[in-house]
């Protein structure tokens, strides 16, 4: 494997050999890159027959550990934590953001590979999986003089991530996830019973939805949905789409199984809808994200197995996961580590560069032009599509028009100097969907978050994942301007390179919208999530 990595050829191998390489690499990561955080309950077991459905708070999914994947469980680790308390401001996050991350002039998009629906989709997934518990203490970052004139916020405040004792001798402190990390649709159902009760109609298993096909809102204009932290119109539209999908499944089930009551219909519809979401992510979204023949074959076999869709549709799950896929396997395997998503998984899903500067609204009633896109009506700045203002604008645009418009607009590419400038003066929302008083500089905050949460920097990250580390900036990128600015910010010490910057700067495999370093975490954790969520 090291020889293949050194030559950098795995993605150019014939499909079968490429799949063999990826299977071998995933096996190594399952052995060496899963670390439990927190105490593992001993002897806490339950009968899975008693819980043939998704619980509101994510518990009772792993028969060996009732709390695994529950709301409030610890984030795990793919790499042992690296204490960076002495380096939280080295180099200053606002300098890093200003010089290396922020969109300077032209918007770099992904062409026909990825559109704004795809950008909205990954936020929809993140709102299903991960969000950190915050402390009550606030931190303030102030822009150094060298970049202050280029920073919309000269300083900004935010809440620290809460560090919690684990009562575990190995990793002594950790952070907690206030969402449920299973593929359970919690972006539309919520992560606890209190939230779920607000969303259900308690009739025919259905969820609440407005007559116009969008989400309902409370008296403050906040959408009624499973997760309302930092929402924008694109995310809200996807939440509404899958509420409607859930309700359509309820109708279909009621028609076929007339003896099912409200609770039964809700539980079955949630299982079906969550599985549809996972399937779309695996064989539609990710296939476009990693657009190579090898990954297309790998992702389809991940879902259907090497025997293929027709065989699985006809005979069901037969034999091992290699033959019939990881979904529907009768025995789960957590590789000796209770299920959770990891800090490193959070870090590689920092994809805000996908978002454009504005949304191009199309006239869907008009004939399409020569480029097959409906004519442009107007461009709405993204700032006007966030939070409660975004919900008001969405109600004027409408569900269908917004969806079609997003489908005809390319999203941003994940590279240096492509982080939206409007995110440098962003109004964040709390878990209840209410605007917070302090604006934040999001690219600077994301650099700080990785350091605060003890995530390894780029080179240590690659080394721990059995990838070849860089020795010089030229190993990272061919862009001479990037090399110049990297030296300006980090000097000649490549070990100081922040993970987020490295992921954006890294030379990409042809067809990949993300870096290979990020992909390695996907390879391990996405498969683990499917296997344990759906077995």
Automatic annotation (TrEMBL):
Binding of heme b, residues: 352
Protein name: Uncharacterized protein
Record key words, sorted: Dioxygenase, Fatty acid biosynthesis, Fatty acid metabolism, Heme, Iron, Lipid biosynthesis, Lipid metabolism, Metal-binding, Oxidoreductase, Oxylipin biosynthesis, Peroxidase, Plant defense
Keyword Transmembrane: no
Reported cofactor(s): Ca(2+); heme b
InterPro entries: A_dioxygenase, Haem_peroxidase_animal, Haem_peroxidase_sf, Haem_peroxidase_sf_animal, Oxylipin_biosynth_metab
A Pfam cross-reference name: An_peroxidase
This protein's record includes keyword Iron: yes
One Gene Ontology biological process: defense response
One MF term in the entry's GO annotations: peroxidase activity
Transmembrane segments: none
PANTHER family: ALPHA-DIOXYGENASE 1, PROSTAGLANDIN G/H SYNTHASE
Signal peptide region: none
Domain of life: Eukaryota
């Amino acid at each position: 494997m090291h020889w293949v990595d050194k030559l950098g050829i795995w993605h150019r191998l014939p499909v079968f050999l490429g799949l063999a390489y990826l299977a071998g690499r995933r096996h190594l990561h399952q052995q060496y890159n899963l670390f439990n955080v927190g105490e593992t309950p001993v002897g806490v077991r339950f009968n899975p027959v008693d819980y043939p459905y998704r619980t509101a708070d994510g518990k009772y999914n792993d028969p060996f550990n009732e709390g695994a994947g529950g709301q409030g469980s610890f984030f795990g680790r793919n790499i042992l934590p690296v204490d960076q308390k002495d380096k939280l401001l080295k180099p200053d996050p606002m300098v890093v953001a200003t010089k290396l991350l922020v969109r300077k002039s032209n918007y770099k998009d992904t062409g026909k590979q990825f559109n704004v629906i795809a950008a909205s989709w990954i936020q929809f997934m993140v709102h299903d999986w991960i969000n950190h518990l915050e402390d009550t203490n606030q931190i303030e970052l102030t822009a150094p003089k060298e970049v202050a004139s280029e920073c919309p916020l000269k300083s900004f405040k935010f809440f620290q991530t809460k560090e919690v004792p684990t009562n575990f001798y190995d990793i002594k402190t950790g952070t907690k996830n206030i969402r449920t990390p299973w593929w359970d649709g919690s972006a539309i159902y919520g992560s606890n019973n209190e939230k779920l009760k607000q969303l259900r109609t308690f009739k025919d298993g259905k969820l609440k939805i407005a007559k116009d096909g969008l989400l309902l809102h409370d008296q403050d204009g906040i959408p009624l949905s499973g997760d309302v932290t930092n929402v924008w119109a694109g995310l809200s539209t996807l939440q509404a789409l899958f509420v409607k999908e859930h309700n359509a499944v309820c109708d279909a089930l009621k028609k076929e199984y007339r003896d099912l009551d409200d609770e039964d219909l809700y539980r079955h519809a949630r299982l079906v809808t969550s599985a549809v979401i996972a399937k779309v992510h695996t064989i539609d979204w990710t296939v476009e994200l990693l657009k190579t023949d090898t990954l297309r074959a790998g992702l389809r076999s991940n879902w259907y197995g090497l025997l293929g869709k027709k065989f699985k549709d006809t005979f069901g799950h037969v034999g091992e996961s290699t033959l019939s896929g990881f979904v529907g396997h009768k025995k789960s395997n957590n590789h000796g580590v209770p299920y959770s998503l990891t800090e490193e998984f959070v870090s590689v899903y920092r994809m805000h560069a996908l978002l454009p500067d504005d949304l191009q609204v199309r006239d869907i009633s008009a004939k399409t032009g020569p480029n097959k896109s409906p004519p442009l009506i107007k461009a709405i700045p993204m700032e006007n599509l966030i939070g409660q203002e975004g919900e008001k604008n969405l109600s004027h645009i409408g569900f269908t028009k917004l969806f079609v418009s997003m489908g005809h607009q390319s999203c941003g590419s994940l590279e240096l100097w492509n982080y939206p400038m409007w995110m440098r003066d962003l109004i964040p929302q709390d878990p209840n969907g209410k605007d917070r008083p302090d604006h934040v500089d999001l690219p600077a905050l994301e650099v700080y978050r990785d350091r605060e949460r003890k995530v390894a920097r780029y080179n240590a990250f690659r080394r721990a994942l059995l990838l070849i580390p860089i020795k010089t900036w030229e190993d990272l990128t061919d862009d001479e301007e990037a090399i110049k600015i990297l030296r300006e910010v980090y000097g000649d010490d490549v070990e100081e390179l922040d993970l987020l910057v490295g992921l954006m700067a890294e030379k990409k495999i042809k067809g990949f919208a993300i870096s290979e370093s990020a992909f390695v975490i996907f390879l391990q954790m996405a498969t683990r999530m499917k296997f344990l969520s759906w077995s």
